[in-house]
Amino acid sequence: MKEVHHKLLVEEMERLTIDEFRSSDKLPLCLIVDSVRSLHNVGSFLRTADAFRIEKVWLCGITGTPPHSDIHKTALGAEDSVCWEYAPSTSQLIERLSREGWQICAAEQVAGSTMLPDFPFDSQARYAIVVGNEVMGVSQEAVDAADCCIEIPQFGTKHSLNVSVTAGILIWEFARRFEYAHRLKR
Amino acid sequence: MKEVHHKLLVEEMERLTIDEFRSSDKLPLCLIVDSVRSLHNVGSFLRTADAFRIEKVWLCGITGTPPHSDIHKTALGAEDSVCWEYAPSTSQLIERLSREGWQICAAEQVAGSTMLPDFPFDSQARYAIVVGNEVMGVSQEAVDAADCCIEIPQFGTKHSLNVSVTAGILIWEFARRFEYAHRLKR
What we know:
Two copies of one chain form a homodimer.
Chain A: H1 18-23, E1 27-34, H2 39-51, E2 54-60, H3 69-75, H4 78-81, E3 84-87, H5 90-99, E4 103-107, E5 114-115, E6 127-132, H6 140-145, E7 148-151, H7 163-177, H8 180-183
Parallel strand pairs in A: 1-2, 1-6, 2-3, 4-6, 4-7, 5-7
Helix pairs in contact in A: 2-3, 2-7
């Protein structure tokens, strides 16, 4: 006979308060959002960033910023916990973060991109992942400024994941390889 | 000096035609969608299912089905490649698939759920992942019918990923552990 397991109540989830979140250790990982149009996607990025406690979300170009009711609908308050900042030019931001020692990885299908499982991950590095516009992807300018391009292998008819899903898979995969459990105390 | 890499043109992506997709090998993986309200999420599931060539998407309960313009907006045609079917009762579907030899894993935070990295994956098994409603999650009835519950570890203030992101991370992680490259010929 199968055991029956009750779904966790909110108070059983050991969620951090906003103050605890802000003062807690973060994964050395940023998300750079290059001109994403949908505010629902922005909200979803912030929620994923909250879940995996990444250092910062950069909202660039035409990407909308909090406070906005459409962002709140999918961020569900993560816009108040996650550190975010607006930057007008994605490529100038990339150049600045690069000088500051971040490794910049654009999520884009380019000639010579590295398939995600083959990416030579370095647990001592700090990474910034760039995701792009829903239709255009990451701009060529941002691709050129980045250190490398990472591609999620795809096997179907479209080769085009939703950008929130792309960010989710990449953040999960980087968190996994960073051995988050050792870095993020509960 | 950095090399400049051009973004791949659609014709360089080696995308399958719909006929090629339908006759191609699939990962032994299904997605069961338990009463998801948003048609954008349904479209996103289909797009992810297309990308990783999973066997089938089951749309259950109040979940909407193609054809629908809001599903098409996020599925972008994946509703025509991916095998999908509607089932009124998630728990009855789970019982049927279970009898047919599928291992059923609900994506839910329950007492005694298995953290994703600790899941004892068996590359010889066939898996069906259950994702649930945006607010309620996977129903208790479906949780009870499933073989196990898998939880994506989360470290922030919310402990609630967007359901499209949850499905994306789980499908990616199962595809990775299935060693998709050996199973899915390009």
